[in-house]
Amino acid sequence: MPYSALLTDLYQITMLAGYHEKGMCDSPAVFDLFFRTPPFQGGYAVFAGLDTALQYLSTLRFTDDDLAYLERLTIFKPAFLRYLQEFRFRGKVVALPEGTAVFPREPLITVEAPLAQAQLVETALLNIINFQTLVATKAARITLAAEGGEVIEFGLRRAQGPDGGLSEVRGAYIGGARSTSNVLAGKTLGIPVKGTHAHSWIMAFPDELSAFRAYADVFPDSSVLLVDTYDTLKSGMPNAITVARELRDKGHRLLGVRLDSGDLAYLSREARRMLDEAGFPEVKILASNELDEYIIRSMREEGGRVDIYGVGTRLATCHGEGGGALGGVYKMVRYNGRPRLKVTSDISKSTVPDRKRLLRVVNDGGRFLMDVMCREEEVLRPGDVVYDPSNPCRNKTIPEGTRLVDIRSVVMEDGEIVVPSPSLNEMADLCQEQLRCLPEGVLRLENPHIYKVSMSRGLHELRNRLIEEVQRGYV
């Protein structure tokens, strides 16, 4: 379903009205979308949301109902509303592939378009990219903590509304949660749906064994039995094993048991022991209940025997230190043929001006060493000196024996998508490959290694010149 053109902040439309009045709508502009700090106090983020963003841009229209609403606000002139009738996005977009590991200050998306078009889309692009990238990053952290265990997204009931529930599943899938309990997301996104049953199913029957038998009768080859309604080890597990035997005698098999409360590390060890001793080593153990990367890591360190992790609230809400939101911003870097720069008293918050390329420095073993932003016309090689955007006094040399890979490409021209969208599986596979190529310290949950993002000499000199011009009052 196309996003409404009114999915924006009022000030975007009032600025458009101002640009229209002053004859500035068609002036060429370039904007970069980037973030300054990784979420969750981590060392990286996982880029997600591009395909959603491109669909938004390619279908952007003001409907008659939209224009009637804007007219009722009584702040816009008729000539401007007539202009909006024909409004379309006809710009160019340069971006990274979804699933790419990304870092502070580097441009995730660059929009090049007439000023009115590039300006209006700011809010919607940030809404789409910030949230899906945040969720994909959280899911990647959880998946890494699971160390090969399967992660199922269970978060719909705690997600930020119906649309948030769909966007969250999409980002989570890219980050590594390759199935969901959300049936609408399964249909819409074409991804596997999985689930068990609730405690209410157990309580709706005379006793736990009757409830298990009834569920297994309906779903003889896909039952995962919730074993903690009364007593996990004294009741739930013995009854589940009884049903597993009965299913096997009928030519079927119990798929798994689910633990949803208590000491999950201890209970999963005991459940595994009981299943193995009863002759059911193939039955999976699924754990849920407020799981996140820290709890999963702790469970594994304590010898937990969980095969599948159902992660809900803390994934859907991106719970955790430095979570809750990705602070992505959208800043003008070129206007009317001239590089533009936002300057503040804090040099670390100054933007990086102009059109730019984003190069990834890769060693012979395929490991990522650093990223470098450079001007479009620059040619960088190993041995070149590059500069820290947040502290220009710091610099380093691109190591010899490495290669520089341009990791962004044009994905939209004249408002038309020019590259086929990869499948969600391909995006998720890319994410896993990217994480394998990062320096190990970048993946740490606490005190991660800071991955270097640098500026080329040409970009460094351009920014310094623009800062001097601003300080002299010439801009």
Explain how this protein is built.
The protein has helices at about 10-20, 50-60, 65-70, 80-85, 115-120, 120-145, 160-175, 185-190, 200-205, 210-220, 230-250, 265-275, 295-300, 315, 425-435, 455-470; strands at about 30-35, 45, 90-95, 100, 110-115, 150-155, 225, 255-260, 285, 310, 330-335, 340, 355-360, 370-375, 385-390, 390-395, 405, 410-415, 415, 450-455. It has about 475 residues and is of the alpha/beta class. It has 2 domains: about 10-135 and about 325-470, nicotinate phosphoribosyltransferase (Alpha-Beta Barrel); about 195-305, TIM Barrel. Strand 7 (about 225), helix 11 (about 230-250) and strand 8 form a beta-alpha-beta unit. Helix 7 (about 160-175) packs across helix 15. The chain is globular and about 80 Å long. The model has no long low-confidence stretch (mean pLDDT about 95).
Strand order of the largest sheet: 12-11-1-5-3-18-19
* CATH fold type of the largest domain: nicotinate phosphoribosyltransferase
User: Which of globular, elongated, flat, extended, rod-shaped describes the shape?
Assistant: globular
Q: Give the total of beta strands.
A: 20
**Domain module tally:** 2
Question: What brief labels describe this structure?
Answer:
2 domains, 475 residues, 38% helix, nicotinate phosphoribosyltransferase, TIM Barrel, alpha/beta, seven-stranded antiparallel beta sheet
Secondary structure layout:
Layout lengths: L9 H12 L6 E7 L10 E2 L3 H9 L5 H9 L5 H8 L6 E4 L5 E2 L6 E6 H6 L1 H25 L3 E4 L7 H15 L7 H7 L9 H5 L4 H11 L5 E3 L5 H18 L6 E4 L4 H14 L6 E4 L5 H9 L6 E4 L1 H4 L12 E7 L2 E2 L16 E7 L5 E8 L9 E4 L2 E7 L5 E4 L2 E5 L2 E2 L6 H14 L14 E4 L1 H16 L3
